[in-house]
Amino acid sequence: MSKDDIIKALAELNEKQAGQISALLVHAGNLELIIEKQAGQISTLTLRVDDLETELSVYKNRKNSNNSHTPPSVDLGKPKRNQSLREKSGKKAGGQPGHEGSTLAFWAAADEIIIHVPQYCHRCGDDLTQVPAIALSKRQVIDIPKPVAICTEHQIFSKACSCGHITKCEFPINVNANIQYGCHIEALTAYLNVRQYMPFGRIQEFYSKVMGLEISQGGIVGLLQRFTAKALPMYQEIKNRIEKSTCLGTDETGAKINGKTHWFWTWQNNALTFIVQSQSRGYKTIQKTFPEGLPDVVLVHDRWAPHFRCEAVHHQICLAHLFRDLNYIVQVHASDWAGSLKLLLKRAIALNNEAGYDPAGAGSDNMTRCELADSIANLLGHKLPDKDKLAIKLQKKLRKISHYILCFLYYNDVPPDNNGSERAIRNIKVKQKISGGFRSIDGADGFAVLRSVIDTTIKSGNDVFYALSLIANLGAE
After folding, report:
1. What is the pLDDT of residue 85?
2. What residues contact residue 230 under an 8 Å CB cut-off, 6+ apart?
3. Entry's InterPro entries (predicted)?
């Protein structure tokens, strides 16, 4: 092969290879487009999978009273077991070592003594009435007599003096009708209806079948109205003391009145409970009840927006509600952020519960308190994964109110939770469960008045029925 043929063959080969290379480059470009398109699809599908996993997690972990602000009354089914905020103590259930038990004790002085002495020999039949008896043992039976109504008749007379003046007696202040029910029946009616939640029909049955009194349901309503009027001065005094308190918890709950939703609000502390009924769940109820706000009070609540608008020294958000929110986020997102925040809050509560801890003190306690505040601030500023939408939403909310998280570490007698307020309004739910909704606004207002008086009496350690009897003996204004 000549030199020219070789050159020609090489040129043809180069041209062929160039064409192949060009084709390969075009194919590679197409592959890059395909890969880029697939990468976009993978990214889109990954986001979609994250969204679907979040939706599935929310579906599997429905909100209930253990992981959200949802009240127990609207739980769809029983919450999963072991979801309580209370941690295991490691102790066995029941009474602990050193616990003093109690049993029914003998009365020091019996009201009636019945002696059982044999009168004849059970073997031979001889008379034993003259034989001295030897005491062996004794047993007591505690019972109550059958309750009966007592009718007291008041008669007034007059006398003529030698001077010619005729002096007439007057009926007692509480005897103002020809025939009426007395103060103890008033107190008992209030006790049965408000303290024991009995509906009018069952109160009527109790009076008829047990007491032998035929009182209509309208008569029961009248007794309650008369008693409520007598209790109003004490109710007003409770409000006055509430306004002068240094710490209050507040909450609200819905209730049906004549088929329409109204709201019962409470403001309470360890000594007082004040309840009002309102058509609104908004700020105007607070404004109407406390026009000047509560400027001397640290207000504890569950982050309901109207409470933040109430003028107060400071606010403490309920950590029990926050724990439930964090539990839900852990269930849905398996979030380390929520778990870390829970641990910090538990450390804060443990610090507050330590013997000798003084919110106004200095030294190591102050350092610990500052360290906790800094750690929480860091968590609230921490960048969260985009897929943890619930955690991001809660984090944004907490950033705005971060100075209300550890308020209880800076004030005496400020609790870290609002459980006291929930206990105060739980009576409204118990009332509805047993008796149903309220028939009238007057009835609901009366229940708020009497429940405030009863709960405050319980907190003072006094006997409820005795206190109601004292109120019943007062003259209505």
Report:
1. 65
2. 186, 471, 472, 474, 475, 476
3. DUF6444, Transposase-related, Transposase_IS66_central
Low-confidence stretches of the chain (pLDDT < 50) are: 476-477
Determine the Cα–Cα distance for residues 324 and 334; give it in Å rounded to an integer.
14
For 257, the enclosing helix (H) or strand (E) is strand 247-257
Give the tokens for residue 351. Answer: 């610090």
Question: Exposed (0-12), middle (13-18) or buried (19+): which is 268, by Cβ within 10 Å?
Answer: buried
Contact status, residue 312 vs residue 299, Cβ threshold 8 Å: yes
Q: At 253, which helix (H) or strand (E)? A: strand 247-257
3 state SS of 126:
coil
Q: Which amino acid is at 274?
A: F
**Tens digits of per-residue pLDDT, 337-365?**
999 999 999 999 999 998 778 887 767 67
Which residue, chain included where needed, has tokens 């006398």? 159
Give strand pairing partners of 252. 265
Spatial contact of 355 and 413, defined as CB atoms under 8 Å apart: no
List residues bridging with 268 in a β-sheet. 249, 273
SS (H, E, C) 87-124: CCCCCCCCCCCCCCCCCCCCCCCCCCCCCCCCCECCCC
β-bridge pairing 294-301 and 273-278: unpaired
Cβ atoms of 261 and 254 within 8 Å: the answer is yes
Structure confidence at residue 476 (pLDDT) = 45
Q: Give 308-354 as a DSSP string.
A: HHS-EEEEEE-HHHHHHHHHHHHHHH--HHHHHHHHHHHHHHHHHHS
Q: How many CB atoms lie within 10 A of CB 420?
A: 19
* CA-closest candidate to residue 300, choices 316, 276, 319: 316
In whole angstroms, how far apart are CA 239 and each of 235, 253, 447? 6, 19, 16
Work out the percent of the chain whose per-residue pLDDT is above 90. Answer: 65
- pLDDT value of position 477: 43
Quick check: 181 and 215 in contact, CB under 8 A? yes
Contact between residue 333 and residue 390 where contact means Cβ atoms under 8 Å apart: yes
261 beta partners? 256
**Phi and psi (nearest 5°) for 2?**
-75, 165
Question: What tokens were used for 138?
Answer: 């004794």
DSSP character at residue 360: T
106 is written with which tokens?
Answer: 């003998």
- Evaluate whether 451 touches 205 at the Cβ level (below 8 Å): no
In the three-class reduction of DSSP (H, G, I as helix; E, B as strand; rest coil), residue 208 is classed as helix
353: Cα within 13 Å, side-chain hemisphere:
8
Collapsing DSSP to helix, strand or coil, 147 comes out as: coil
Give the span between the Cα atoms of 281 and 255, in whole angstroms: 11
End-to-end CA distance of the chain: 135
